[in-house]
Design a protein that fits this description.
Blueprint: H1 22-29, E1 35-36, H2 48-55, H3 70-80, E2 87-90, H4 92-104, E3 110-115, H5 120-127, E4 131-136, H6 144-150, E5 155-161, H7 173-182, E6 188-192, H8 207-212, E7 217-222, E8 235-238, H9 241-250, H10 258-269, H11 271-294, E9 298-299, E10 306-310, H12 315-324, E11 327-328, E12 330-331, E13 340-344, H13 348-364
Parallel strand pairs: 1-11, 3-4, 3-5, 5-6, 6-7
Antiparallel strand pairs: 2-8, 7-8, 9-10, 10-13, 12-13
Helix pairs in contact: 2-10, 3-10, 4-5, 11-13
């Protein structure tokens, strides 16, 4: 059987490997009590109001969803005080990132990002056969001065993950402003703010304010993190109207299903659940900081719902030993940080269990 030859761009693409699902670990290791602290999900789950809103749509599952997601876009616009014409929603923020690449990149064009960071920026460029400019982090934070110096005439998109995944670090408002003031015309700066609702630094950038001032910026956000809707896949972009109009030209007609749209609207309205999630995260972060400090492990201050921790040795054996005890973490090997682990902040009892297990594992591996 002779099949068509795949595009040359595929040679640069490695399939995304997510954190292990709970069911897989239970089956592989014969465990029943498994907790997942690997994928930065909200351990409180979604708002009950979002679950109810989703359930109420199921009787109309035979009808296509609103392809323009008008009610959801209006809800997002109202919440963030922007125009609906500045909003596009996607099947997770991953789709929004790919829409940006598909809209703007030719093979001769380039994108820029810091490294390590979220792998979907590189993936989006590679799908289009475009070039990548990867600038190493400085102190595990985006080095915006180095990135500004590395911009070329072919650079069209700059991705700034803020807070950054996997490090949890952030660029502050002054650094972001200086960067934007130096960016040449014809470059769109995309702030991936998947974890922005968790950020509490007083000098965290106001990207929507920068957008209102006319800077060439966009923010990509998600309902997968603090809103607890990762399984429904709803992300969105807020940006210049011209950018959003172009993205709508190539967006799939029914990319976000009806239950997901309804759940996202209800989740956005339930800010009490958001605040509860935020308080739990702050308490859990302090708890894990104390645990890591007691174990003599270095971690980076986090503005997100996860902590990047250096275990002082190759982390893969630590990851595997912790996994044997029913706790799923994220090994730093995926981020070219072989001594690190990314740990999602859990509920109090989950954090405590991790601390107990990690202490035993580190002692046994000495």
């Amino acid at each position: 059987m002779q099949l068509p030859k795949s595009r040359a761009a595929l040679a640069r693409i490695e399939p995304y490997i997510p954190g292990k699902p709970i069911a897989e670990v239970q089956e592989e290791l014969g465990l029943t009590d498994v907790i997942k602290m690997a994928s930065n999900e909200n351990p409180l789950g979604p708002s009950p109001k979002a679950v109810l809103a989703m359930q109420e749509t199921l009787g109309a599952a035979h009808i296509y969803p609103d392809g323009a997601a008008r009610a959801l876009r209006q809800a997002i616009a109202t919440h963030w005080h922007v125009l609906p014409e500045q909003v596009i929603v996607g099947n997770g923020s991953d789709e929004v990132l790919l829409l940006l690449a598909t809209t703007y990149l030719e093979p001769s064009d380039a994108i820029m990002y810091g490294t390590p960071t979220f792998s979907e920026y590189a993936y989006a460029a590679r799908v289009l056969g475009a070039k990548e400019i990867a600038v190493p982090l400085k102190d595990e934070t985006f080095d915006l001065d180095a990135m500004l110096a590395a911009i070329t005439p072919n650079t069209k998109l700059v991705f700034i993950c803020n807070p950054n995944n996997p490090t949890g670090t952030y660029v502050n408002a002054d650094a972001a402003q200086r960067f934007l003031d130096g960016v040449p015309p014809g470059v769109l700066v995309v702030f991936d703010e998947a974890y922005v609702e968790y950020a509490d630094a007083p000098d965290f950038p106001d990207v929507l304010g920068l957008l209102a001032q006319g800077y060439p910026v966009a923010t990509v956000r998600t309902f997968s993190k603090i809103y607890g809707l990762a399984g429904l896949r709803v992300g969105y972009l807020i940006g210049p109207e011209a950018v959003v109009a172009d993205l709508h030209r190539i967006k799939q007609p029914f990319n976000v299903n009806a239950p997901a749209q309804a759940a996202a609207i209800a989740a956005l309205e339930d800010q009490e659940h958001v605040e509860k999630s935020r308080r739990m995260n702050q308490a859990g972060k302090a708890q894990l900081y104390a645990i890591f400090d007691e174990l003599g492990l270095r971690c980076w201050p986090s503005q997100s719902n996860f902590i990047f921790v250096d275990v002082g040795r190759p982390s893969q054996p630590v990851y595997e030993a912790v996994l044997q005890q029913g706790i799923i973490l994220r090994s730093g090997a995926a981020f070219n940080r072989p001594n690190a682990l990314r740990v999602t902040i859990g509920q109090e009892h989950e954090n405590q269990r991790l601390g107990t297990v990690l202490k035993q594992v580190l002692q046994n591996l000495h």
